[in-house]
Amino acid sequence: DVKVTQSSRYLVKRTGEKVFLECVQDMDHENMFWYRQDPGLGLRLIYFSYDVKMKEKGDIPEGYSVSREKKERFSLILESASTNQTSMYLCASSPVQEVETQYFGPGTRLLVL
Amino acid sequence: AQTVTQSQPEMSVQEAETVTLSCTYDTSESDYYLFWYKQPPSRQMILVIRQEAYKQQNATENRFSVNFQKAAKSFSLKISDSQLGDAAMYFCAYGGRTSYGKLTFGQGTILTVHP
Q1: Which member of A75, B27, B87, B106 lies 3.0 to 4.6 Å from A67 by CB, making a disulfide possible if both were Cys?
Q2: Which of B21, B18, B30, B33 is nearest to B89 (CA)?
Q3: What percent of chain A has pLDDT above 70?
Q4: What's chain A's average pLDDT?
């Protein structure tokens, strides 16, 4: 079974703090994705990566950056957290031979005070 | 840009009954995929069913089936013999074949199953 793990289930941070959300997958998938999930808005793509050290902006990249130094790990960085970044963050991965079928992590619920 | 719309924020069904969740999408592409994902409360999102646009036959996975109407850009999910474990948020998603696996999601539908 594909396993996608995220470093924290719940996180509370202060405005202005730098926040790191980590995602690790164990199935050697090439593609990895970061979404945020908000009520009434569904999932919105923040960034994705189709290879190590490669990254592409999604639909809402402002205020975020990412890092992919190893194939299995994809990090989402909030350089200076703001209250409007309070949300559920979901990581996903997919293999190159079936790129559209994504496997999700459990999510990190982030509260920025 | 592609859009996906789920017009039913909430639905409910009695155990053992059938329920249909609606989804419409907009795209100018001719080759794409459509998905239904399930997110149980406090649990991981999982793929329920997948449809390739070039296939006319509707996809089926056990009690889950879709009604794919390409001309109408409609992709509904039918759950037969509903079970308590089907209670979840359901997301419809669109993926273009040339989009590097990027998916566009709908707003989600919360399904409640009554015993």
Answers
A1: A75
A2: B21
A3: 98
A4: 93
The answer to whether the Cβ–Cβ distance between A40 and B107 falls below 8 Å is yes
Tokens of A38: 């908000």
The H-or-E segment that residue A46 falls in is strand A42-49
Residue A1: the pLDDT is 66
What residues 8-37 of chain B have any CB closer than 8 A to a CB of chain A?
9, 33, 35, 37
Whether residues B101 and A50 touch (CB distance < 8 A) is answered with: yes
Six token digits for residue B104: 């566009």
Residue in the structure block whose two tokens are 């090439």:
A30
Secondary element (H or E) of residue B82: none
Using 50 as the pLDDT threshold, list the residues of chain B that sit under it: none
Best of A100, A101, A108 to disrupt the B interface (most B CBs within 10 Å) is: A100
With tokens 């299995």, the residue in question is: A72
